[in-house]
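Q: What does the assembled structure look like for these inputs?
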Amino acid sequence: MASPDSISSAGAAGGLSTRPGVLKRLLKNRSALIGGSLVLIFVLMALLAPILPLADPFKSNFLAIRKPPSELYWFGTDELGRDQVTRLFFGARASLLAGIVSVLIALAIGIPFGLLAGWYGGWIDIVISRFTEAMLACPFLILAIAFAAVLGPSLTNAMIAIGLSAVPIFIRLVRGQVMSVKAEDFVEGARAVGAGDLRLMFRHVLPNTLSPIVVQSTLFMAQAIILEAALSFLGLGQQPPAPSWGQMLNVAKNFMEQAPWMSVAPGVCIFLCVLGFNLLGDGLRDALDPKEN
Amino acid sequence: MTTLILRRILIAIPTLFLVSLMVFALQRALPGDPFLVIAGEERDPEVIARLREIYRMDDPVVVQFFAWLGQVLQGDFGRSLRTGEPVLHLILQKLPVTLQLATASILVAVAIGIPVGILAARYKGSAVDYSASALALSGLSIPNFWFGIMLILLVSVHLKWLPASGYESIFVDPWEAIKRLILPAFVLGNGLAAFLMRHTRSAMLEVLRSDYVRTARAKGLDEDTVVHRHALRNALVPIITLTTLLFGELLAGAVLTEQVFTIPGFGKLIVDAVFNRDYGVVQGVVLCTAIGFIVMNLIADILYIVVNPRLRTG
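A:
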């Protein structure tokens, strides 16, 4: 008799591992390539910031307060004489960290609840779905602000707030995917050879719902970076003197006439990074879309 | 149709109940004792005890919840912990400011998003389509608070064409109001325009592929008539309902736009409340926004049933 694990989920739709051409298609996709390159640049910026010979991002230099861009300071200096380039590099760490951690929080809560709702249906589904709808009833940023107000202003709390406010999106997504995958023949096959609910959910169903989760996570990274920047811009995220792009803009808006350069570079970074994740997400969706195969 | 609408309304009730439960839980999760804020510097124990009694803090949580829910149902959303003013009063005071901005932004979004979406669908695969898609993607990726700062720098600081901040009611001084509205409405409308453009394009493409459009073309009608008289009408149905759903996006966007342009609206109310630790206002604003959003969802659903003949008769 076949063991539950020997029942392959290879025929199911949606599994990442079941698509040998995914990487090939991804590399051929122009938007994925541009997006991936932009993301890679920012990841390198964040990783290399402490290694590169950059100035101290925290150290004030009162002889260089609000200096315009020059050969010495490519993007100028801020209100405390700190080099903008250095702070942009270190700011990338805050933005990417916020994106990754909030996606992980949303996934860690969203996947189990989505699985439960989609797999068991009935009253479990009704309760989870109603809570999801109630959370979705509140606009994203307002919900994040409310959470940030409860948790207090800091980067960590901003990440938790962003992650929590994204939970309903992932619950809904996983629930829908699970409902369609659980009706597939291979699930019935695995059940027939004795697989229990947990094994079926985590070994057979979940791997086959990964494609849309990966796409949604990439697109949500873009949203999380904007949200972190927005919360920091409002003073509810990264706290000074630690740099983040949103927090740099929060300070820059007070010096729009005296030092307009302070506002330009952080915004360009947010825009390009978000654009990168949006392009990569779109490209991933095209590469993983069953209709494309 | 009436049964369908009634069913939609009934479905909204448990969602509203859960939203109120979540807002109540949020209030209880607040760090520290909120009454210390109201009690002021002296923190008189007698005052705090009296406040706890008024707010039924010593009752079981379930009793507290239903008592609070009863008040909400009577239109009492609580009071500002700072000023003692009713939260609903504060919200109603600020709402017209945000509604003025939201209306102008929707106009900007519709004026840009729908025509560009139609053009992109009509000339699919052409330079027009690619430019429109790039524009939409940029619109979705640009942080609107930064876009606002850039526009202030260019239009207000450098060119000195329009004021950089402030608010004026359209009913008091229309010209001044329009001058102060142009920049924030453009900033807030930009992201929504991108969203509308993408949806209009895909809705139009769907309709342009349908049989009746092919028949219209086969009858010898010119492309303009096919697009505007036959395809657009049907493509607009989902777009109209979608526009109603933009309400939530608008409110969230308004928080940041109002902050950049110093507009004393709904968004600024919640941000100021967070910094003043005025949890009563934060809670009231979240609840009001959620109720508004659910009602707008309901309107979108009903509108969809009303404009869709298949659902109307079904």
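Chain A has eleven helices and no strands.
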